[in-house]
Design a protein that fits this description.
0% strand, 424 residues, Bact_Transport_Assoc, 19 helices, disordered N terminus
Length: 424
């Protein structure tokens, strides 16, 4: 495997901080668009809704447009690729042959896809782990490819994805009257709107979750080309960043991290602000859908940028940790959630199923963006507290434990590769 780094220092803080913090954004985006959308809101129906002209809802919509929607997915995709890069380097140091390393990585991300499939069907039809796992398996084939071809491939895929959403965004902006309607509401964007109109029980029963989950689970492999265009380049960038030690040597890569952070801020301001303003009616509300599509296209550029921001901000803390220092308890708690991000992500679905859905307690249904954002913050805080408790007990997250056990076996990875004896 080319371009291996020789060693990894003490645990890198920024990926865990990024995952832990971004789970708040994922909760906020999912609450507003999937768990408790207000599809018939007069304003911001794509981003949680403004109910009765609420100023709080309008503020929440602006926050969501800038910092939540299409922010968590690209960040996690970048770090997923980073994780594959770290694993490939670890296998290289353990003297794994290329074929064995590919097989092990494909196995690990195959189990992630399986977890996502179960999550999609039985808990949340908006699951992304299934797609992450499928693309992770494909990336296993690329671990011996050099950095330059990988980065060129990432640029081409990003360009194709951007062209697709630019075309959609421009079409919706210029032909908003002809292309608007209930089918393009928040529910419709997630693939549920058409079903909900004909089959009301889709939103009102757990059987509806199973129905939609099964449909989207079957559809995900067929949408793989689009997922590859959207998620694939971010995973390639993260993979190369891990091989080059970008997050372990912030000083050397400071300029590139600052550029990435600047690009992300540019998208948040230049795309997120107009999107939010259209959502709350300051700009023509007919522009919301077109700008939402542009955010889908440009939003993927925020993934590496958010990671870069957190890496730069965490540099003094990383230095303190490397020198044997400790971190404040709140930061340890967020880091603990980042270490257990899969369990935290699925916990969000469990709590929403119990407290938010129409077929359960229905908290937040029809309430608008401010309420859904507040509920998301409470759910996130619960996950932070539980993750911190597990950290104090020295326990992994339950899904992380199961995933590692299935991927590496009871004994874990050997320090040096041990080939399996041939069967006689």
């Amino acid at each position: 495997m080319p371009q291996a780094v020789s060693a990894t220092p003490s645990r890198i803080l920024s990926p865990d901080f990024a995952r832990g913090l971004t789970l708040l954004g994922i909760a906020g985006a999912n609450l507003a668009t999937a768990w408790a959308p207000v599809n018939d809101a007069p304003l911001a129906s794509l981003m949680g809704g403004v109910v009765d002209g609420s100023v709080a809802d309008k503020i929440a919509v602006m926050i969501g447009a800038m910092f939540l929607h299409v922010r968590g997915l690209p960040m996690f995709a970048t770090l997923l690729g980073f994780g594959i890069g770290l694993i490939s380097m670890s296998l290289y140091r353990r003297q794994y042959p290329l074929a064995a390393a590919r097989k092990l990585i494909a196995k690990r991300y195959g189990f992630l896809a399986l977890f996502g499939l179960v999550h999609c069907i039985f808990m949340f039809y908006g699951d992304i782990m299934f797609g992450y796992g499928l693309i992770g398996m494909l990336l296993a084939l690329c671990i011996a490819v050099r950095d330059k071809p990988l980065l060129i491939s990432a640029a081409v895929l990003m360009g194709l994805n951007l062209l697709l959403f630019l075309a959609l965004g421009v079409a919706f902006l210029f032909f908003s009257d002809a292309m608007s309607g209930n089918a393009l509401s928040a529910g419709g964007m997630l693939g549920t709107g058409a079903f909900s109109e004909q089959l009301p029980w889709i939103d009102d029963s757990y059987w509806g979750q199973l129905f939609m989950g099964a449909i989207l689970a079957v559809a995900t492999p067929f949408s793989l080309p689009q997922l590859i265009m959207m998620i694939g380049p971010l995973m390639l960038i993260g993979f190369v960043a891990a091989r080059r030690g970008v997050l372990t040597d912030v000083e050397t890569y400071r300029r590139w991290l600052q550029i990435s952070a600047g690009v992300a801020l540019g998208v948040m301001v230049c795309i997120g602000v107009p999107l939010g303003l259209a959502g709350i009616g300051v700009l023509p509300k007919e522009w919301e859908l077109g700008l939402f599509m542009l955010n889908q296209g440009f939003g993927i550029f925020t993934g590496p940028g958010i990671v870069a921001m957190i890496a730069l901000a965490a540099e003094p803390l990383q230095r303190r940790l490397n020198e044997g220092g400790t971190l404040p308890a709140p930061l340890v708690a967020v880091q603990a959630l980042g270490k257990r991000s899969m369990s935290g992500y699925v916990l969000q679905s469990l709590l929403c199923m119990i407290f938010v859905t129409n077929y359960s307690l229905g908290i937040g249904q029809g309430k608008g963006a401010a309420d859904t954002l507040a509920i998301a913050a409470v759910i996130w805080l619960v996950s932070v507290v539980l993750a911190y408790a597990l950290e104090l007990l020295g326990k992994k997250g339950p899904l992380e434990y199961l995933h590692r056990r299935l991927s590496y076996g009871h004994e874990g990875l050997p320090q040096v590769y041990q080939p399996v004896p041939a069967q006689r």
